[in-house]
Amino acid sequence: MFAAIKGWGKCLPPATLTNDDLATFLETSDEWITSRTGMKERRISHVNVSELAYVACERALAAAGKKASDVELIVFGSTTFDELCPNAASNVQRLLGADKAACMDVNTACTSGMYSLTTATAMIKSGVVKSALVIGAEAISPIMDWQNRDVAVLFGDGAAALYLEASEHEEGVLAESLGCFGESRDILAVQGWGMKYANKSRLLGQSNWAFLGQEIFKKAVAGMAQGCSKTLEKLNFGAEDIDLVVPHQANLRIIDSLAKKLSLSSDKVFINIHKYGNMSAATALVAFVEAIEEGRVSANSHILLPAFGGGLTWSAHVVKFGERTTAIAESDVDLPECTKSGLALVQDLIERKKG
Ligand code: ACO
User: How big, in percent rounded to 5, are the helix, strand and coil portions of the chain?
Assistant: First the structure.
């Protein structure tokens, strides 16, 4: 049994925050951010993460030609759930009206969307469910430390979803490797973001980021390279068997280092970091969905998806795409209108933190 990818959708909030916008309140510049990261702009959400996820799911269902009542499982990968109890997947279930679906949340930081893909695929392959929506979504702007240029320039908000279905054909995830450098978990940690602080600290909901950029950089390249090698080995594949690489987009230099390490030619590597920055759990799936939408994924092709995140978790999946690479239909569901610019939304967040 396989878990075929039959539908795909993404939802990017409309408000854009450019590098020049960041330079209006941080000591930074478009030149520094572009040359060190490859990022030019990112999106700032005016709604919570469940709403971004819901719209992405509606689009994935339309692309698959399916209804909410066809969904048997929702796996929601994120680090910025609206609430911990009840979970966020149950909110998406309610918004969709997918009342037959089991609902679970997965948090492995930036790899959450990819770990969710593994979870849903395994549950379909083992016969627990026949279909699933997989979500990678993040609204990280409310927890961002906007006064800290080490991190504020790197992240953005967004969401993507895949619709999976049981299939006899060899397609969907063929193999993956997952892992975690737990001994290095403190090099990317956010004080105030979790129940450790509840009723004990004025930090709850505030954010002090511990972020050792250069150490994360090295672990990211090592983790993703190791993950890719292990996954290719499982399939007895070489780099030449991969048609497209869609990596987690945290830094263009990390992607370049990975491609060099794996001897991958740059024309095989999909990049969208300039438009969205690092959307944490949403990044890899938004990039995958965009690659499909832009016609970069051909029928029956093999796609390699390496990712890493806080923890420090890492993953690498090889997906075989199916025969159909175009959407069956489009959804007209959209986010409520946003009346503010990205910069105005961020200024509101800075004021709220001060207050
Ligand atoms: N604007 C201007 N200057 C800056 C900025 C900024 N935003 N940030 C740092 N600088 C300065 C530093 O102070 C330093 O100045 P100095 O030389 O006078 O001391 C100089 O720029 C160089 O700083 P470095 O930290 O050495 O810059 P580096 O080239 O390592 O790039 C970066 C930093 C972009 C953070 C890089 O290390 C990186 O991308 N690391 C990985 C981050 C990552 O992948 N994060 C994802 C986490 S995933 C998740 O799960 C949340």
Answer: 40, 25, 35
